[in-house]
Amino acid sequence: MSLRFYTSLGCVFFLLAGCATTPETTESDVSFQEVESLKPKIEPVDQVNPANIPDVEPVNVQAVSHSSVVKSYQRALKLIADPAIKARIERRLAGLAMVESEELQVQGETFEQQKLAMSKFDSTIQAYKKLLRDYPDNPDNDTTYYQLAKAYGLKGNLEASDKLLETLLEKYPNSPLASEAYYRRAEFFYSNKQYPQAGVAYEQVVKRKDNPKMVVNARFMLAWALFKQADYEASLDEFTALLDHLAPSKEVYQSLTKNQKALIEDSFRAMSYAFGYLEGGKSVVQYYEKVGERHYESLVFSSLGLLYQSKERYQDAADVYLAYVKRHPLAADSPEVFARVIKVYELGRFPSVIIPAKAQYATDYGLSSRWYTAQVDAVSPKHTQRLKEYMGQLASYFHTRGQKAKKNSQEQKEYFNTAIGWYNGYIKDFPKEPDVADKYHRVGDVYTLLGDSENASFAYSKAAYDYPDYDIEKRSAAGYAAVVAFQRIAEQSKLESDVRTKIEQSLKYADVFGNDSRSIGVLVDASESLLKLNEYEPARDIARKVIVKLIETGKSEYVVDQSWKSLKWQPYSSRKNRRASWVVVGHASFELADYPQAENGYFQALRLMKKNHQLYPSLRQRLAISIYRQGEALAKENKNQEALNHFERVLVTVPEADIKIQTQYDIIAQHLILKQWTPAIAKLNAFRKTYPKHKLSEGIRDKLIYAYEQSEQWSNAANELTAMANDEKSDQEQRRKALFQAATYYEQGDKIPQAIDRYRSYAHGYPAPFIVNLETQHKLAELYKALKETNKRKFWLKKIIENDKNAGPERTERSVYLAAAASYELAEDDWQAFKKAKLTLPLGKSIKRKQSAMQTVIKKYTAVADYGVSEFSTASTHRIADAYYRMSKDLMNSERPKGLDELELEQYDILLEEQAYPFEETSIEVYETNIARTVDGIYDDWVKESYKRLAKIMPARYAKDEQVEGYADVIQ
C-alpha cells in the first residue's frame, strides 16, 4: 500500500462528518431503464455498508502567508514570559503546523511530497505531545487530545488516534468535543467491523443531542451497525426514526438538501435489505401496521421491489408492489407502484399476466375509477400518459388476438369486442389526444372484421374527417374504408336511403382526398349508383369529373401534390375506370335524351373495351340507338338531310345494329321527303329484297309507287300497282284502286297495251263503283280509238251506252254524258255511211238505200238528243237537219237518166224537186229548232252552224250581218 493510501484513510475520520451519498443512489421515481442498468446485488450482511457522507461544513482554509505567521508566533514566544500566553501561542503554532501538514497532504501529488507531509505530521504530533507534557492541567487539553488524535488519524495511525479519543472522553466526558469523539470512535469501530462497539458509540452521539447535524449521521450509522449485527427490526426502527426526523412530511422532504435526500435514499436502500432478510413485502406491511402509516411508505416498498428486481426475483418484486397497492389503493402514488408490477412482469417475461395487469391498471386507475375521483386534482401527466399507453396496448393486443383466432368463432368475437371496448374507452377518456383518430381507425377495422359495417362506417368517418392533423395517408385510408363500409350497408339493406348515404360519403371522400388514387374508383362507383337511382345529371357530372382527372395519355404514374407520395397506377385500372365513366356518361346522356353526348360516351367506352367484354355488344347497340335518336330528332325538326346523315351513320358505325332494318327504312323515308327519288327507289327495292317477310316491307310497295310517281316513272309505278292489284293478301278495295291506277300509269308511261289490259281487267272485274267502271270503259274506247281498232272501240262505246241505260239510281250526269258521247260517236259512223251513200241510177233503188241510211241517222241522233246533253243535243239536231238537207241536195244533184230530151229532163228535174222540197223544208224546221235553243242560253258551235245553214237556204231571212263569231264547219 502507498503512503498516500494510509494518509487518505486517516483523513476520512476527520474530514468527513458522516454518511451523505451512496454509489447506488435510487430516486423514488427511478425509471425502470435505470433499474435495469444498475442491477444492484443483495450482499451478505457483512458486505452491506453505508456510503460515506462529507461534513456538512467542510474546512475552508484561507490562503495566507503561512511562514510569516509562524515566524511571528515564534518571535512572540521568545518575548513572552507568561505561561498561559505561552501555552496559547504554542497551541496556535501546533495548529498552524497541523494546517501546513494537511495542505501538504492534500496537495501532494508525488511520493516525495507525501513523504514530506508525513514528516510534517510527525512535527505536529510532537508539538501537541509537548503541549500535553508542558501543560497537563490546561483546561483546553480536550482540544489538544482531539487534535493529536486527528493528526494520528491523518497520518494513518488509527489505533493511536482511537486511544487518544478514548482518553479524551475519560478525562473530559462533558467536553464540547465529546460527541465528535464518540462519533470518531464509532467510525473506527465500524471500519474494524466492531459493530456492537460502533453501535454503542453512535448511540452516545444520538443521546447527547448536542450536535444535531452529527446526531443525524450517528443515527444513520447506528441503524447500519444494528443491521450489521442482523438486528433488522431494531435497525428498521432507527432508520424510521431518522426518516421521521429528516422528512416528517412530503413538504419537508421536498425542501431537503441533496445530501440529506441522499442520506434518506440510502436509508431506504438499507431498509429494503432489512425487509428482504425478513419476509419481504409481508414484513413491510406488518411493520407499518405496527408503527403506523408513513408518507414515504411507497419508497420503502419500491426500494425493496427494486432490490428484488436486481436479483431477478421478479415475482417477489411484483408481490411487494402489489402489497403496497393493496394497502394503499387510493394513494396518489398507487398507479406508479402498480406500474412497477407491470414492468417486472415484462422483465421477467410473464406474458400471461402482463395483459391482465395492464387491464387492471386501466380499470383501477382509469378516468372512471374511484382512485381517479379521489386524486383528480393531483393526477400526474406521467400517469395519464401511461394510462393511454396501456389502453392502447390492450386494444391492440386483443385486436391482434382476434385476428389470429379462428374466423367467426366465439373466441374471435370476444377478442374483437374486448378490443373495441378498450379503443372506445381510450377515445372516451382522451378525446383530444392526437392519436384518437388512429384509435377510431383501428376500431373501424375491428368492426369490419366483426361484419358490423354500420359501426365501422361511423368509426372510419371520424378518423377520416374529424381530425385534420391525422396522417393524411391514414386519413385517406380511413375515408376509403368508410366508403366501403357504407357500400356494404347499402348492399345488405337494398334501401335507397342507404345507397344515397353511400353516394354522399363517396363524394365527400373524393372531395377531401381527391389526390388519392382510390378516389377515382369511389367516384366511378358513385356515378354508377346515381345512374341506377335515375339521377342522370349528377351521375354524368361525376363521371365527367373522373374522365378529366384520369390519365388520358395511358401513363401508369399519376403526379400528385408534393405533400403526397407519388401514386403508381395500374394502366388497366386507369383504363377500367375511364371505360366505366364513359359508360355512365353514355347511359346518363341517353336517358337525358342528350344523344350526341350519349354517342360520345359509348364510343369512348367501346374504344377502351375488348370485343369479348360482356358489355361490348350492348354498348354497340346503345351507340347505334344514340346516333339514330339524333337523326330522329332532326327529322322532327324537318332537318331531313341532317337526319339522313345520322341514319346513314348508324349503318356505317354499327353495321350489326338491332335497329338496322328500322334505320334503313328511315333512310328511305328521308330520301322520299328530300325527293331523292333515285336512291330512295334503289333502297326500297333492296329493302324489300333483303327483308321480304319483315313487317316494314309491307309498306315498301306504297313508297315505291310514290317514288315512281314523283319521279314520273309511270311504268314502274304501274308495275307495283299491278302487283298490288294481284296480291290476294291485300284489301279488295285497295286491289281495285291499284288496278285502275296501274292502268292509268301505264297509259301515262305510254305502255298502251298494258294500260288497255289493266283497264279491261278493271272493266270486267269491278262493275262497282258504277261511274268508275264507266270511265274505264270510256278510257278503253279512247285507247282503241288511238289504236284505230274501231270494232273494239265500238264494243266499249256500246258498253257505255248499255251500262248507263241499266244504271238505274246510280246513273249520273257523267254517265249520261258519256253515254250521250258514245251514242253520238256511234251515230257519227252512221252519218258517215249516210254521207257516202250516192244516188245513182236506177235512182229508185239508190234512193231507197239513201233513205234507209237517213232514217238510221235520224234515229241515232234522235236517241243522242234524248240524253239531253246540250253539247250533243245541238250536234244531233244539226245532224238530223243536215240529213234532211243533204237528202234534198243529193236528190237534186242525183244522176239523170240518159237519153232524156230537154222537156223530159225538165219534167224529171221538176219531179226531183218535188221529191227534194219536203226534205229541205224539214231541214229548215229542224235547223230552226236548233237555233231556237238560244232562247235557253245555248249558243254553241252547232247552233252557230245551224244559223249558217239557214243563211244559205234562206238568205233573205237569215243571211244578215250578225255579231257572231265565225265557226269553221269541221264536221264534213
Automatic annotation (TrEMBL):
TPR repeats lie at residues 624-657. Keywords: Signal, TPR repeat. SUPFAM superfamilies: TPR-like. InterPro entries: TPR-like_helical_dom_sf, TPR_rpt. PANTHER family: CELL DIVISION COORDINATOR CPOB, SOLUBLE LYTIC MUREIN TRANSGLYCOSYLASE-RELATED. It comes from the Bacteria. This is Tetratricopeptide repeat protein. It comes from Litoribrevibacter albus. The keyword Ribosomal protein does not apply.
